[in-house]
Write a structure and sequence with these properties.
230 residues, mainly beta, nine-stranded mixed beta sheet, two-stranded antiparallel ribbon, 4 helices, 11 strands, 24% strand
Length: 230
């Protein structure tokens, strides 16, 4: 398997001064390209038993429905030539509708929801499609600078079919007014690449009066690659 190189400006800057923690953790030397066939040759496989029925519905883990706007997120995972990435593990995690993660390090002044832990996982199907149900996350303060608030987002981890397709990214919601003020989103130099991180409302995928549907397609590597977003 061969991959085109990802175009300049698609991946975020390794050191982006407005994103303050990159100053201390970003590499000071340019990366080295290593020619190794295994990442593009050897397959990545997980047991189907890894995913249970409730892993595709982040709203089904409590004793009652979680608070917030229920949504459905779906899309396709493809390679640079539009071919489906089949039977590949996709993991998601997010904060709740109030903007707080179910994690001991998140202690900001927002309520936890006992019915929402914000963790899910699934496999793509034979057409590369995925679908999960969740709650639209809220924005939250993160202390990077004065008045620093993250736009609403969901974290995605994808393993692809080979190691070279590994991707960790974030899905945002189109037209969020916080985009212009977020150093993580703005660390991706190319505006078109940033736009590929935004999910869009799709009424065809909306479930009646139950949940709004959003589309988010993902391209692993090469042309029109979905950017990394850490």
């Amino acid at each position: 398997m061969q991959f085109d190189e990802v175009a300049p400006g698609v991946y975020p800057s390794l050191i982006h001064p407005p994103y303050q923690s990159t100053r201390s953790r970003g590499p000071m030397q340019p990366p080295l390209r290593v020619k190794a066939p295994a990442p593009a040759r050897d397959g990545v496989r997980f047991s189907p038993a890894l995913v249970g029925p409730k892993d595709l519905d982040l709203t089904a883990h409590g004793s009652s429905a979680p608070l917030g706007e229920k949504i459905i997120v779906s899309g396709r995972v493809v390679d640079e030539d539009g071919r489906p990435v089949r039977r590949s593990l996709l993991e998601v995690w997010q904060c709740n509708a109030a903007g707080r993660y179910w994690h001991k390090k998140d202690q900001h002044d927002a309520p936890l929801d006992p019915n929402f832990h914000g963790i899910g996982k699934m496999f793509t199907d034979d057409d590369g499609r995925y679908r999960f149900v969740t709650i639209k996350p809220g924005p939250y303060p993160w202390g990077n600078h004065d008045k620093a608030w993250r736009p609403a987002h969901i974290h995605f981890s994808l393993f692809g079919n080979v190691l070279a397709q590994r991707l960790v990214t974030q899905m945002y919601f189109a037209n969020d007014p916080l985009f212009a003020f977020d150093p993580i989103f703005q660390s991706i130099p190319d505006a078109a690449a940033r736009a590929r991180l935004a999910a869009h409302l799709n009424m065809d995928h909306t479930d009646g009066g139950n949940a709004l549907g959003y589309d988010f397609d993902i391209v692993l590597r090469g042309r029109h690659a979905t950017p990394m977003a850490l």
